[in-house]
Structures are given as C-alpha cells and as structure tokens.
Amino acid sequence: MAQFQETAKLTNNLAGLKYELNSYWSALSTECCSMLFIFTVTRLMAEQESSILTLGIFGGISSISYAVGAAIGGRLSDLWSVRQVITLGTIIQIMAMLACIQWHASNHSLYLIAALSGSAIGCIHPPIIAGLTKGGLTRLGTKLTSTRLYRYSLSWNLGLIGGQTGGGWLFPINPTLPLIAGILLMVGVLILVRLNHTFTMPVSETMYREDSVVPKEARTFVYLGWLANISGAMGMSTIIHLFPHLAHELAISPPVHGIMLAANRIMVLITYSLMHSLTFWRYRFSATLFVQLSALIGLILLTYGQTVIFLTIGLLLFALLTGFNYFSSIFYSTTSFSWTHQGMVSGLHEASLAFGFAAGAFGGGIVGLRLGSRGPYQMVAVVLVLTALIQFGVYINMRRHQNLRD
Asked: Is the pTM of this model over 0.85?
C-alpha cells in the first residue's frame, strides 16, 4: 500500500512538472509573438511618419481588447477548460499575424488586427495563471504559489525580451520576418496544447508546511495593487507603443532601440527575483512608495534625456515600478481569493493592467500631439503622483478601520 502511494505521488509530481514546463513555454512563446507583432507594427508606422496619436490608437485598441479577452478568458477557464480557452486564443493570434502580413492599406484594417491580437493574448495568459495556482493557497502554500508565479513571470518576460530584441534585429532585414517568427511560435504552442489532452495541473497536498492564512488587510492590498497597475501600465504602454516615435525622432537605430527595451525588461526580471527571494515587501505600503519615487525619477529622465545612456537609465528606473506592481499584484490576487475563482481573479488582474495600457496609449497619443514625443512621459508622471495619493488615502483608511476593530 505504501509503495502504491509513493508511486502515485511520483506520477502526480511528474505530471505537475510537465504541466508547469508546458505552461511556462506557452507563456514565453505567446509574449514573444505579441512583442514581435507590436514592435514591427509600431516601428513601421513610425518610419512611415504616422502621427504619435496613430500609434496611441493602435496601442489603445490592442490593450482594451486584451482587457476584454482576459476577463472573458479567465472566467471561461473556471467554467470550461484551460486547454480549450488557450487553444481558442492561439488560433485567433495566428489568424491575426497572418492578416498582418497581408496588410498594405489603411490603418483601419490594422486596428482590427490589433483588436484580434489583443483579445487572443488575453485568452491565453489568465488561464495559464489559473492553472498554475490551481488548488488554492491552503494546498500550495505561499512559498510554492510564489515560486510558480515567479517562474511564470520570468517566462513571459523572457518572451517579451526575445520579441523586442528579435524584432529589432529581424526588422531591418525584412519587416515580414518578425511576423513569420511569431506565427511559428504560436503554431508550436497550439501543437503543444493539443498533444497534451489533459493539460491540467494535478492538485496535490502542499509541499511546504507553512501558515497559509493571509492577513486581514490582504484584500485591501489586492485593490491597491490593481490601482497601482493603472499608472505602472500606463508608463509601460507609452514605452512599448510610443517610444518608437521618440527613438525614430532621435535617430536611434532599430537594433539599439530593441536593446534599450530589452534592458528595461531585464531590470523587471531582476525585480521579480528580489521579490521572490525577499519577502519584506509583502503587505508593506512603504515599499510601494519607494518604487513609485524611483519611477518618477525615471520619467523625468525620459522627459529630458537626450542620449541613449540617460534614456536607458530612465527605462531602468521605471522598470522597478513595473516589476514591483506586477509581481505584488499577481501575488496578492492569487492568494487572497478562493481557488474556485482563480481564473476570474487572474483575468481581473490582467484586465487592470490592460486598462492602464489602453489609457497610456490613447492618452499618450493625444498628449503627444500637443507636447511632442516627450509629452506622454509627463502625463504618466502626473498620473503616478495622483494614484500614489489615492493609494495613500486608501491605506490610511484601512489602518484606521483596523485599529477601530482591534
């Protein structure tokens, strides 16, 4: 009997490891494909002298579509099947990339392609998050949950870096090459998902004997995290969708442009690693204020910097906020709600980011028309200060009510 239990446990662990590896690769490939698409289109539009508002509309439509896709895809993964939802998103993304290769006309058709791509990516990420955190905090424990979220975050960020750097090097050869590379990646994800007929994480007992009860104020930090995502995502959206306009204006070559964006994401990965290893930041509002101050300095450099070095430093400083907001928000979201709603919560987490992305792209495009290529970063700086003040008010109110209850 004991041997049978050991064999069953080993089989379960191997199945879980296989699912994890498949999920991480799917996240990496999906994000790499998305960035190959965005880098290629935004750079091509900039070189064709499209206005910064045009780039903003493209980014805004893509982000709003992602928010809708994430909310729907996350909930469907709770009710339907992680495998089926990811399959749907992958097929739509392949269709969008194929359509983009054929695009030679007006921007209106490109906006439709952006909507398809955004919703497709939104249907993929929340189900992956929900699958990795299946079982809930009481079974996984905070350490294992953090480990899986950390690996997932590393995976999609490595894909993002690969898409930005790869797009930067492939684009000068032929703008179609990055799109073809993205299609091949998504075909690989589709094959991987369909070959694994179960594609579900087995639920096992917790591997770490630790307290899995979250603090009473955990839900407040969830909402603070979603609020922080708005300003952080706005800044990242201007960097991804509108920085190509500034790079072209300053005669920064596509390869250097790609490397600068990759450096930004590498700093995000470093932030993830520190947050996974060190837990002092959990449920501490002071850590949030520190990274917001760093991001504000970075935005000032992006507003006034003239050289690649100063602009890159600005990107690195803002990356601290991006990494902190994302990892803290996804940790609070997945550990503060019932495991039966993991897909829905993961979708709302991603949607909060997407709405920030949309606001950054749309708002940055409009502001850029009046203030130039630096205007979007000034806008984000103002929003960052305002959201920080709102967060501070919410936090103080939470502490006051907690003291009254005590």
From this structure: no
